[in-house]
Amino acid sequence: MRMYDLINKKKNKEELTKEEIEFIVKGYTKGEIPDYQMSAFLMAVCLNKMSHEETANLTIAMAQSGDMLDLKAIHGVKVDKHSTGGVGDKTSLVLSPMVASLGVPVAKMSGRGLGHTGGTIDKLESIPGFSTSLSPEQFIENVNRIKMAIVGQTANLAPADKKIYALRDVTATVDNISLIASSIMSKKLASGSDVIVLDVKTGSGAFMKKYEDSLALAKEMVQIGTLAGRPTYAVITDMNQPLGRAVGNAIEVKEAIETLSGNGPEDLLEVSVTLASYMLLGAGRVSTPEEGRALLLETIKNGSALDKFAEFVSAQGGDIAFVYNPQLFKTASIRYEVKAPKGGYVQEIKTDEVGMASVVLGGGRVTKDSVIDLSVGIIIHKKLGDKVTKNEPIATLYANDDEKRKEAEKRILNAYVIGRAKPVKPPYIYSVVTKDGVTDLRQNH
Fold first, then answer.
1. Which burial class, exposed, middle or buried, applies to 344 when counting CB atoms under 10 A from its CB (0-12, 13-18, 19+)?
2. 420 in catalytic set
3. Residue (of 2, 249, 54) closest to 132 by Cα position
4. What is the pLDDT of residues 228-246, one digit of tens each?
5. Does residue 398 contact residue 375 with C-beta atoms inside 8 Å?
6. What is the helix, strand, coil percentage profile of the chain, to 5?
């Protein structure tokens, strides 16, 4: 096989075989295929697209390019949830203990934040003593004993994806559904869970801004999971405003704890419960999402979800005093209210700008090596459709540097569009994609 012939084949809109795709992925990962040939191939894919089968074969080849986690030693059907990334998205911290408290094992590998989206691992590290680095043996032991563990991704998980993504980033080949879907799903398949639930965000703070694009991505990923023999569900959720009210690290953990205690924001609870109900469905714990929903809400009412979160924190070295008394979390030294420049209704929130305001404060990364400040963040007071009067606080900034605070304030003011007409609020959940098709839930809104 020659890379030249395979580039030519894709340029001429022909379908590549499984063996040809494996040859490309292996050759590039090992350094036998140069960047310039891989770039030409990626551009041919962007221009001529890939079939479902090609996309599935690409994903499996990328998953097999490094460590494939063997979680057979974990008892029961293992479930995992992946989000395509958003602002204020702390659903993993809410749904994992809910699902685990119902006896379904959650073996989760999470990432760190980059750009305007936060990362679960950074958030958890704001709990004093908490460790996201467990040995494979400890990870398996924790999931068997308490039904959940969340760790950082291993360095050798889908290395082909890391290498290909870095090239896509600089060659204008990021925005192709097959390449995006295979990038996300290769890591999920390598992570070893039996059931995959995907939270596909849509809107101003999401990777995919338009619902139609989010739906196309969701369908592609469900197809890949199904072809790989893993029950896969995708829930399309709103990211036209931050999820919940807290954006940051420590303050998002506080909000997750409040939600587990029954005092959290409605949108965060709704999205978490919906995703978790499909985790329970996939694991065979319930026969309908509605049955799952009732059980999950009960875990909040009876306190078992909060107790499970405390058990999980303790098992990974964290101080559980923070779980039962979230006021212990350190808050940044400057507390500043951003006030509305005029009255009216909140018509739009440029959510990626809110995410960048948190990054400016020091709560996120500009590069992979950036050191983050876990104590800074933003509390959102006004959300879409809310009435606001002039000089009323729309958000509170928590900062440790006044120059950064000023820059973050500019971004928040730029993020809010206030006008006379009251807008229609977007739904929390748009639709659910399974191997059997799409259920549109927008009319329930």
1. middle
2. no
3. 249
4. 999 999 999 999 999 999 9
5. yes
6. 45, 15, 35
Instruction: Specify the CATH architecture of the domain 79-325.
Output: 3-Layer(aba) Sandwich (3.40)
183 is catalytic: yes
Give the Cβ contact number of residue 144 at 10 Å. Answer: 15
Provide the token pair at 445: 């809104």
Rounded-to-integer distance, Cα 83 and Cα 86, Å: 8
Measure the CA–CA gap between 274 and 72, rounded to whole angstroms.
27
Instruction: Give how far Cα 432 sits from Cα of 200, 234, 271, 438, Å.
Output: 10, 6, 12, 6
Q: How many separate helices (H) and strands (E) can be counted in the chain?
A: 17, 14
Q: Catalytic pick from 187, 219, 285, 350?
A: 187
Domain layout of the chain by residue ranges: 3-48, 79-325, 331-419
**Does the annotation count 82 as an active-site position?**
yes
Judged on CB neighbours under 10 Å (0-12, 13-18, 19+), 444 is exposed
How does the average pLDDT of the chain come out, rounded?
94
pTM over the 0.85 mark: yes
Q: CA-based Rg of the chain, rounded to a whole angstrom?
A: 22
The architecture in CATH of the region 3-48 reads Up-down Bundle (1.20)
Cα gap 413→340, rounded to integer Å: 8
Stretches where the chain sits below pLDDT 50 are none
Please give the structure tokens belonging to residue 3.
Answer: 């890379």
Active site residue 67: no
Same fold, 79-325 and 331-419: no
Which residue has 């404060």 as its token pair? 361
What single-letter amino acid sits at 21?
I
From 81, 108, 162, 168, active-site residue:
168
Of the residues 80, 89, 122, 161, only one is catalytic, namely 161
Whether 401 is catalytic: no
- Check 183, 193, 277, 358 and give the catalytic one: 183
What letter does residue 16 receive in the DSSP assignment? P
Catalytic residue among 10, 82, 116, 411: 82
CB 268 within 8 A of CB 410: no
For domain 331-419, give the CATH superfamily. Pyrimidine nucleoside phosphorylase-like, C-terminal domain (3.90.1170.30)
pLDDT value of position 443: 74
Under 8 Å between Cβ of 90 and 252 = yes
Distance CA 122, CA 349 (A): 25
Cα distances (Å, whole numbers) of residue 175 to 152, 156, 158, 168, 206 = 26, 25, 20, 9, 13
d(CA 84, CA 86): 7
